[in-house]
C-alpha cells in the first residue's frame, strides 16, 4: 500500500514538473519553421581604394618643389572588403529591412534566402540615426513576416531571434526581454532609439535580423550587443518595431527620414538637483543649453527648466526626451509640461525639423522625390555655400540636396549633404561643370565618383543604366 501511494505521489510530481516546464519554456519549433523562410542572409562587398606615395611623409619636405608633384598619390589599389548580416522580408515584392551598418558603404549587396536563391539588392534608403536600412530585390511572391506591437512588450516576455551569426545560416536563439527603453547614444552622441534589451544570444552576423514575440510577430530588429569578447554575453539590444515601421515607411516613400527637433541640450536631474528645483524625486530632462531661434526658444522654454511631459508622454529620464521628440513629425504643435522655479508651467511647442546627418546647414530640397527629379543621376545638386566650404575645408564641387531612390546616385550610396568633387575622370568645379559632365557620361560603364562626407573624401563607383 505504501509503495503504491509512493508511486502515485511520484507520478503527480512528474506531471506537475512537466506542466511547470511546459509553462516556463514555450514550444518554438512552429514559430521558427513558419518565419525562417522570410529571414535572409546579407553579404556585402566594398571596394576600398588605397593610395601610396613612394617617399615616406617625414622625408617629403626635403624634396625640391619642382619634383613635389611626383609625390601625388597615383597608385590606387582596390581591396574588396566583405561583411555580412541578416534581414527580413516585409513585402512579397522584395522589400527587406536590415541595419544601416550592414549595408553602409557597400558597393554590392547580395541577399540569400533559405531555399538558396540569391538576388542582388538595391539600397532604397538608409537612416544612420536609427541604424535602419531598406533594401529591395527584384522578385515576387516572397515569404514575409508580420509586424508586432513593441509598445506592449513587457520585461520577462519570451523572444526569439533568427539570423546568421558568424555566417552560420538561419540560426535561432531564444531568451527574454531584460529591459525596455534603453538609451544608448550612437557614435555621434545622438540618442533617438529606445532599445529593447534582451538576453538572447546575438552575435556578429545577427545584425539586422528579426526579434519575434511568441505570436511570430517582429517586435524588434537586432542591432547591437555589449561584449568584451566579440561574442554574446547576454546583453543584446533591438530597435523597437514601433519605431522601425515609421522609419521604413519614410524610407520607402522618400528615401530619407524626417525627425522632430526641439533645439535644447539636456542633462540628468540627480537627487540634489531635484531638491533644489522643487521636485519630490529625480525626474525629467533639465535644459542646460538652448539654441537661439530654436523651436524651444520660440515657445518660451528657458535654461534651467525641467521638461516633465512632452506631447502627453512622461519624461522620466533625460534619454526619454530625444526618443519622443525624434518621433514627432516636424511642424506639429504639441503640449509641454515643465517645472520652472518649483512651479509647473504648460507651453505649446511647434516642433522643428532635425537637420541632416552630415551638417546642420544642409537641408533636403523641398522638391518632391519623384523619378523626374535629378536628371540622369537622380540627384538634385547646387553650388556650395561659402560658409560650408570654409567649415568643411573644400574649395570646389557641388552640394547634394536630394537623392532619388533607385537612381544611379542612390545606388552609388550618395546622401543629402555629400559634396561631389569628381565624376568619371573630370573634376567638378561648379554646378555648371557638373551639368556638362553628366551630359557626356557614357551609359552602362562603371565610373569613379569622388565626394566628401563630413569633410572626409570617399571614392565609389556609379553607373548609368538608362537615360
TrEMBL record:
Entry EC no(s): 3.4.21.107
Residues the record marks as active site: 101, 131, 207
GO cellular component: periplasmic space
Keyword hit for Ribosomal protein: no
GO biological process: proteolysis
Compartments, record wording: Periplasm
Domain PDZ per the UniProt entry, residue ranges: 246-315, 366-423
Signal sequence residues: 1-22
Ligand binding (substrate): 101, 131, 205-207
Keywords: Hydrolase, Periplasm, Protease, Repeat, Serine protease, Signal, Stress response
Record GO terms (molecular function): serine-type endopeptidase activity
Enzyme category, top tier: hydrolase
Record field: catalytic activity: Acts on substrates that are at least partially unfolded. The cleavage site P1 residue is normally between a pair of hydrophobic residues, such as Val-|-Val
Listed NCBIfam families: degP_htrA_DO
Annotated family: Belongs to the peptidase S1C family.
Cited function: Might be efficient in the degradation of transiently denatured and unfolded proteins which accumulate in the periplasm following stress conditions.
Protein name: Probable periplasmic serine endoprotease DegP-like
Amino acid at each position: 500500500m505504501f509503495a503504491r501511494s509512493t508511486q502515485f505521489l511520484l507520478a503527480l510530481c512528474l506531471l506537475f514538473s512537466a506542466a511547470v516546464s511546459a509553462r516556463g519554456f514555450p514550444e518554438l519549433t512552429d514559430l521558427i519553421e513558419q518565419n525562417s523562410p522570410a529571414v535572409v542572409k546579407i553579404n556585402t562587398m566594398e571596394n576600398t581604394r588605397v593610395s601610396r606615395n613612394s617617399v615616406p611623409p617625414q622625408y617629403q619636405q626635403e624634396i625640391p618643389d619642382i619634383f613635389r608633384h611626383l609625390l601625388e598619390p597615383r597608385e590606387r589599389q582596390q581591396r574588396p572588403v566583405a561583411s555580412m548580416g541578416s534581414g527580413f522580408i516585409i513585402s512579397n515584392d522584395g522589400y527587406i529591412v536590415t541595419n544601416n551598418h550592414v549595408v553602409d558603404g557597400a558597393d554590392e549587396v547580395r541577399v540569400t534566402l533559405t531555399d538558396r536563391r540569391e538576388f542582388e539588392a538595391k539600397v532604397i534608403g538608409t537612416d544612420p540615426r536609427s541604424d535602419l536600412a531598406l533594401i529591395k530585390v527584384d522578385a515576387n511572391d516572397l515569404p514575409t513576416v508580420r509586424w508586432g506591437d513593441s509598445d506592449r512588450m513587457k520585461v520577462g516576455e519570451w523572444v526569439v531571434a533568427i539570423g546568421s551569426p558568424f555566417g552560420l545560416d538561419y540560426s535561432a536563439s531564444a531568451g527574454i526581454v531584460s529591459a525596455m527603453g534603453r538609451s544608448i547614444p550612437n557614435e555621434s552622441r545622438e540618442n533617438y532609439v529606445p532599445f529593447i534589451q534582451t538576453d538572447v544570444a546575438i552575435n556578429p552576423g545577427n545584425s539586422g535580423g528579426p526579434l519575434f514575440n511568441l505570436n511570430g510577430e517582429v517586435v524588434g530588429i537586432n542591432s547591437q550587443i555589449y561584449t568584451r569578447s566579440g561574442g554574446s554575453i547576454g546583453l543584446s539590444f533591438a530597435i523597437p518595431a514601433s519605431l522601425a515601421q515609421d522609419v521604413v515607411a519614410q524610407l520607402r516613400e522618400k528615401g530619407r527620414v524626417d525627425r522632430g527637433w526641439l533645439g535644447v541640450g539636456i542633462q540628468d536631474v540627480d537627487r540634489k538637483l531635484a531638491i533644489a528645483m522643487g521636485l519630490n524625486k529625480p525626474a525629467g530632462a533639465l535644459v542646460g543649453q538652448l539654441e537661439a531661434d530654436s523651436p524651444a526658444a520660440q515657445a518660451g522654454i528657458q535654461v534651467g527648466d525641467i521638461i516633465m511631459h512632452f506631447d502627453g508622454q512622461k519624461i522620466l529620464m533625460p534619454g526619454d526626451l530625444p526618443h519622443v521628440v525624434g518621433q514627432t513629425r516636424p511642424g506639429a504643435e504639441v503640449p509641454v509640461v515643465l517645472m520652472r522655479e518649483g512651479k509647473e508651467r504648460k507651453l505649446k511647442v511647434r516642433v522643428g525639423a532635425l537637420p541632416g546627418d552630415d551638417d546642420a546647414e544642409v537641408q533636403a530640397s523641398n522638391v518632391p522625390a519623384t523619378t523626374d527629379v535629378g536628371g540622369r543621376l537622380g540627384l538634385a545638386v547646387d553650388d556650395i555655400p561659402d560658409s560650408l566650404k570654409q567649415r568643411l575645408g573644400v574649395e570646389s564641387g557641388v552640394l547634394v540636396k536630394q537623392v532619388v531612390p533607385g537612381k544611379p546616385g542612390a545606388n552609388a550610396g550618395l546622401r543629402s549633404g555629400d559634396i561631389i568633387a569628381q565624376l568619371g575622370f573630370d573634376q567638378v568645379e561648379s554646378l555648371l561643370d557638373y551639368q556638362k559632365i553628366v551630359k557626356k557620361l557614357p551609359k552602362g560603364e562603371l565610373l569613379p565618383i569622388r565626394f566628401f562626407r563630413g569633410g572626409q573624401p570617399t571614392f565609389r563607383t556609379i553607373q548609368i543604366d538608362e537615360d
